[in-house]
Amino acid sequence: MNRTAIREQAFKLIYSLEIQKQDNKEEAIDLYMESNEITDINVKEYMTDAILGIEKNEKEITKQIETNLKSDWKLERISKIDLAILKLAIYEINYTQIPYKVVINEAVELAKKYGEDASKNFVNGILASVVKEK
Fold this sequence. Notes:
Layout: H1 3-20, H2 25-35, H3 41-56, H4 58-67, H5 80-95, H6 100-114, H7 119-133
Helix pairs in contact: 1-3, 1-5, 2-3, 3-5, 4-5, 5-6, 5-7, 6-7
C-alpha cells in the first residue's frame, strides 16, 4: 500500500472517530484494521502515529483551524469530512517530516474525492494559512 492509500485509510478512521467519539483510539485502530482486512504493519504504524498524535495535540490543531477560519465561521460549521482532512494534514505539517506541499496536495485530493464541491478550496485555503504561520 502506498503512502497516499495509507493516508486515505487514516482519514477514513479519523472521520469515523469524529462521528463516533470513541475513547480507546488504539482499540479503534485495531478494529478498523481488522474489519478492513488491512495487515500491512506500515499502515498500522502510520495510523497509530497519526491518530494518537492528533489526539495528543488536539487543542493545538483545533486552535490552528479556528485561527485560520474566516471571521464569520465557527468550527461547528465545518463538515466532519473537511475537519478530518484538516486535522490529519495539520498534524502532518506540524509533527512529521513530510513536506508541506505533499501534505497539502494529498489533503486537497481527499477533499476532491470525499468532500463537497467547495471542500478542496476550503481545505487548501486553511492549510496555506497554516503553512504561512510557520
